[in-house]
Amino acid sequence: AAPQFATPQFATPPSQPQPSASAHRRPSQLTPGPVWPAQDPASDGEAFSLLINLPVDWETSASAKSCTVATLIDDWTENLTKVLCKHAREQIIEALKKNSKQLCALPGGYFTEEILRQSMKEDISQPSTTLQAAKQGVVQACEGVLNKPLPQTGGGLFGGFQTAATSANQQLEQEKRTAQSLLTMLHRLMDERSRLERALAVPHQAVLLSRSVVLQRLEALFGSTRHRLNDYTWDSMSSPPSDPDLLVHVACDYLDHVLRVDERQPSFSQVHVRDIARTGLPASAAPSDSTSLTSSRPNLTADKFFWGLQRSVVLGSDGSSLMLHFDVVVRGELWKVRPGRHNVLNAIVLLLYSFKLMRIVGVESIEHIIGGNSYGN
């Protein structure tokens, strides 16, 4: 049976260092890293050998009694594809349209379709200044109502003044309640907008991108309910955002939804994705001077705390073009992943498999992808 042990949320060991400052820099500030050669047949064989030696002991059916990851990884990849397409379509693309519609419906005309279009043209690495200005206009209008003093009531001929003042008080109190409700709705919609902006902020891109460019690519990949990833380009980095990065980013956003229990926690990508293509290798894991870039990729095992996806840039089969490649590192142990169209999806399901194997907190929320039943184990 898989070992059981207590582990914090997101499986972060207590002594794991916090994400470096480079994780928060703009792309232009990142230090270029190495480009590894494309994986050779021996490396591909090593990746497949890993799959046939990883047991799956939570499948209880007779036909799957002694199966391995190699037997199930295609099914898991299909499950993951369905989950990510549904999440991108419902929680990002459609949620963004709904949020925009609700913002435009707020009274006062502070949010318009033109303002929202302008905000989508802004750089994904920064919060939208256009929306913040519109938000401030609504806040000031509401605070102006909330800060109005109530009319003084008093005597008067036959109480007529008091009756008029009471009526004015009631009207102002109603206006204050309306203003307070509007503020509450505004903050809720803007919090949701901030989440959606983060969902469009694909990291590790060589150029600055607008939100509209990222959204268009999301719609092309995930917008259809019938053709999942039909336009997926895995072997090119020529048109950012690169599709493998987009897939990983959507997966991280989904896993934030299902595994993250507190907004004060680091995001999934901060803890479980590292980029050796830009920031270079950890100092203790860097290849020696005798390691040439034409040799096999070094076995990066020095960082015993890291557990997640490892992003690198490799040479394409033509020897000149560049493409992304993802491997999995499980507490410092490198699990090589087969290259090709399904490299990213295979890497993600292998990471989820390792979570299931180690029974991390919240693992039941991903079992519809990789199988098993924590409650029955």
How many strands? 4
Largest sheet: 4 strands, mixed
Shape: elongated
Terminal-residue CA separation = 9 Å
Instruction: Give the DSSP E fraction (strand runs of 2 or more residues).
Output: 5-15%
> Which bin fits the share of residues in helices?
40-55%
Low-pLDDT segments: 1-33, 280-302
Which H/E pattern describes the elements?
A: HHHHHHHHEEEEHH
Report on the structure:
The structure is a single chain. The protein is of the alpha+beta class. Helices cover 45% and strands 6% of the residues. The chain is built from ten helices and four strands, in the order ααααααααββββαα. The protein has helices at residues 41-53, 69-104, 113-120, 129-146, 160-200, 211-222, 243-259, 268-272, 343-358, 367-370; strands spanning 273-275, 307-315, 322-330, 333-335. The model is unreliable at 1-33 and 280-302 (pLDDT under 50).
